[in-house]
Write a structure and sequence with these properties.
By secondary structure, the protein is α/β, with parallel strands linked by helices. It has 2 domains: 1-133, Galactose-binding domain-like (Jelly Rolls, Sandwich); 135-372, 3-Layer(aba) Sandwich (Rossmann fold), CATH 3.40.50. The chain contains 6 helices and 16 strands. The longest helix is centred in the middle third of the chain and has 18 residues, at 221-238. The radius of gyration is 20 Å and the shape is globular. The two termini are 31 Å apart.
Amino acid sequence: MFLQVALLASSFCQAQIIDSTLNKVSTEPISLSVAIPDGNYRVTVTLGNKKKAGQTVVRAESRRHFFDMVETKKGCFTTVSFLVNKHSPRIDDKTTVKLKQREYGYKNWDDSLTLSFCGPMPAVQRISIEPANDVTTVFLCGNSTVVDQESEPWASWGQMITRWFGDKVAVANFAESGLSCTSFLAQLRLDKILSQLKQGDYVIVEFGHNDEKEKRAGDGAWYSYSRNLKIFADRVKEAGGHVIFCTPTARRSFDKNGQLVNTHGDYPEAMKTVAQREHVPIIDLTQMSSTFFEALGDEGSKRALVHYPANTFPGQDNPLADNTHFNTFGAWEIAKMVIMGLKQMNSPLTNHLRADWQDFDPAHPDNPESFMWHTSAGSNLTKPDGN
């Protein structure tokens, strides 16, 4: 159960700063919400408590991960600062993003900025929220492998990559489960991005999983998919932004000889072709995630996906066995691959990585046994849209 704290800011404007002493400590997660306009915000939090030691994990919105467990001794305090992008469906007075029905309950799309603090003993002393208009925004376009998954046990790289950027880069995730290039554009999500994009911002595009299931006349890797990728590239460049492509993450599909099977057909190659033709930098996430699965092996790779025996989560009567959707460990690893892809292309974004970043090799993944994740939201056993 969450300890809910509402910070009221009905008259909040872009010049104002919300600054409040909370002095909250609990064995339960602490959630704080404030109604503010769309935009990027610098959040500064003082963690700790005068009377108790604290162990606090910091997240925001729909489980966007910012800080691993911060330990504070009794009477001692630590201050952390990070950037959060807050967005609603509204584009202008007449137009809104065409959300899926399930998204109306997502913290990513409501009118408030929500902060959550979890861990064994979250301790929050003070919080400050101020507009951050002078920072770079990285907008994410994609499907269930990218979206900020709202509930355990599901997770995606978009909600983990925030962990590695300092307070000069904000990540704005517009992805949603089940989307293809076609449906992302039709739901006006790119229009919403372009309404917020500033000169020099970035847009990262990862599609393929759901595009390959579209079978209408004109669909396919070399026609509708390629055409739509060019639309992303053209519109972002025209608006003064930088576009980056990501080939789709591999599915866990091994043959009887223990070899990983390509399930994406021509889609990764089609994206590479468009990227080369349109001079768009590209991250080969298909290759890196394939290497990752192969390194873990047929059985070990289950540890990166939503594979859990019955009764792992409340109300879970049957086993979960999903070979597409990542759990928190898998999402953590994929996020590192995206960062490595940015480094390989010498992206200026990597100048803003946190000091504790260490380069990652998907052929030598982290040990799942060593990965620690403290839950910040309830579980939902419903499989995300798409596959």
